[in-house]
Amino acid sequence: MVARASVPILLLTGFLGSGKTSLLARWLKAPEFAGAMAIVNELGEVGIDDRLVESSSDAPLLLDNGCACCAAGEDLTATLERLFWDRLHRKIPKFSWVLIETTGIADPGPILERLATHALVAERYHVEGVVAAFDARLGAAQLARHPECARQLKAARVVVITKTDIAGEVELAAARAAIAGVREDARVLTSSRADLSAAAMIAALAQSAPRPAADNGLRAEHTARVSTAFAAVPGVVTAAALTSAFGAVMDTYEAGLLRLKGIVRLAPDGALNMAQALPGVGVEISLLPARPGAPAPCGFTIIAQDVAAQTIADAVVARLAASRPLAYRNTG
């Protein structure tokens, strides 16, 4: 009896701001992932990560209804099931891999369990491995504070220490020690500006130890009191006003702000920019690749712990509104 072909799945995880999307965008351009399908799972109303990888893949998919290890777990397997039938009926081309990027607060354990126990998915796909991104500067502190970080490392066969270009030797040593304290047998790679090649990652995955059986069937474990909110930012806002507003919010809510990320229009010509802020890192603004169809809503998704995300959203909007009429102008 001829064995049925099974499509490999790569699960890419890592805490908020660890650089998962940058790695994914690079890997999707590599020949090793030619014809791959990407599934990007995000929290919040404004999808950013799918925009950043869209130019690298013919069909990236956005699961925009929350964390894949919780309510969206069934949506993930339903998506994989739909992809299989669409491929079988030639509605879409054959794909060689499926790369799944989780949210930054996802616990991979229940995702893996769901993939292994869903009848069709388990028959037609297999998890080739789990790769976790780990911030060279912030990872050790995030690990100490957030249980998701430990769950992500425990599930991973390969850990990529990211952003090594902005980390010192002491920080790199601390990152390696933190990883070893959770998953000593993981293969550890480093990446500067997302320069880790797909070939190097796949080779490390092939040489790595399988996930321990004791980690199977893990229940989801989340940082307590995490909330999300959306801050609408219509019209045009200057980079200076945006940086000032983000800086003030990070100073005020440093202990509770996990992520501030979204889409903004910095010029009347309609060009959209991605802007994000991370406490301890600062503000990053970059041009978003244009894509056809209806324009994305301008605004920011806030993820917070121990403080209402809506409170931070209101503070961002208030700061930007205070910069009118020069910096924050509604062109609608």
What characteristics describe this protein?
alpha/beta, Hypothetical Protein Yjia, Chain: A,domain 2, 11 helices, 2 domains, 14 strands, 7-stranded parallel sheet
Provide a descriptive summary of the structure in words.
This protein is α/β, with parallel strands linked by helices and 332 residues long. The protein folds into two domains: 7-215, Rossmann fold (3-Layer(aba) Sandwich); 226-329, CobW-like, C-terminal domain (Hypothetical Protein Yjia, Chain: A,domain 2). The protein has eleven helices and 14 strands. Strands 3-2-4-1-5-6-7 form a seven-stranded parallel beta sheet, with helices on both faces. The chain has a five-stranded antiparallel beta sheet with strand order 8-13-10-11-12. A hairpin with a 3-residue loop joins strand 11 and strand 12 (282-287). The longest helix has 16 residues, at 73-88. It is globular and about 60 Å long. The model is unreliable at 55-60, 64-72, 212-221 and 325-332 (pLDDT under 50).
Brief synopsis:
The chain has 332 residues and is an alpha/beta fold. Helices cover 34% and strands 24% of the residues. It has helices at 20-27, 49-54, 73-88, 108-117, 119-124, 139-145, 147-155, 169-182, 198-207, 239-252, 309-322; strands at residues 7-14, 37-41, 61-63, 98-101, 125-135, 158-162, 187-190, 226-232, 236-237, 257-265, 272-278, 282-287, 299-305, 328-329.
